[in-house]
């Protein structure tokens, strides 16, 4: 499963308030325009649409605990792990990295898909 793990707990309410819709047209169409946060502020879901070799709708999950924050595919959706799907996770991880200062990626299997 593609994922990105950051080394700290982040404030999901702050991330929620600073979210800007993501629209990318090249090299894959990636659209993430909404975000939902749970009552305890420990999980966020981002509905995503990716069109590369296929058209796929799925959810990206951001979850946080005292030690880390993880970006991954929501287990209830199971898209094919295409380069477009991995890129969508990388774009969300990049947004988190730019929005919340002082984070480091502690673990990932999609480093080639995370924009600088």
Structural descriptors:
116 residues, alpha+beta, Alpha-D-Glucose-1,6-Bisphosphate, Chain A, domain 4, eight-stranded antiparallel β-sheet, 8 strands, 21% helix, 35% strand, globular
Strand content: 35-45%
| Rg over CA atoms | 13 Å
Overall 3D shape = globular
Structural class: alpha+beta
Tally of individual domains: 1
CATH class: Alpha Beta
End-to-end distance? 22 Å
In this structure, how is the largest beta sheet organized?
A: 8 strands, antiparallel
> What is the mean pLDDT?
96
What does this structure look like?
Helices cover 21% and strands 35% of the residues. With 116 residues, the protein is α+β, with helices and mostly antiparallel strands. It has a single domain (3-110), classed as Alpha-D-Glucose-1,6-Bisphosphate, Chain A, domain 4 (2-Layer Sandwich), CATH 3.30.530. Strands 1, 2, 3, 4, 5, 6, 7 and 8 form an eight-stranded antiparallel beta sheet that branches. The mean pLDDT is 96.
Summarize the structure.
With 116 residues, the protein is an alpha+beta fold.
Task: Describe the secondary-structure layout.
Blueprint: E1 3-6, H1 12-18, E2 22-24, E3 29-32, E4 36-37, E5 43-51, E6 55-64, E7 69-73, H2 83-99, E8 105-108
Antiparallel strand pairs: 1-7, 1-8, 2-3, 3-5, 4-5, 5-6, 6-7
């Amino acid at each position: 499963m593609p994922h990105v793990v950051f080394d700290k707990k982040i404030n999901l309410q702050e991330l929620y308030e600073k979210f800007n819709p993501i629209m990318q047209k090249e090299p894959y169409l990636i659209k993430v325009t909404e975000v939902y946060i749970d009552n305890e502020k420990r999980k966020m879901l981002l509905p995503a649409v990716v069109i590369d070799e296929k058209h796929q709708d799925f959810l990206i999950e951001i979850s946080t605990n005292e030690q880390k924050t993880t970006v991954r595919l929501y287990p209830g959706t199971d898209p094919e792990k295409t380069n477009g799907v991995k890129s969508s996770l990388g774009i969300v991880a990049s947004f988190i990295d730019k929005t919340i200062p002082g984070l480091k990626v502690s673990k990932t299997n999609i480093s080639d898909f995370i924009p600088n």
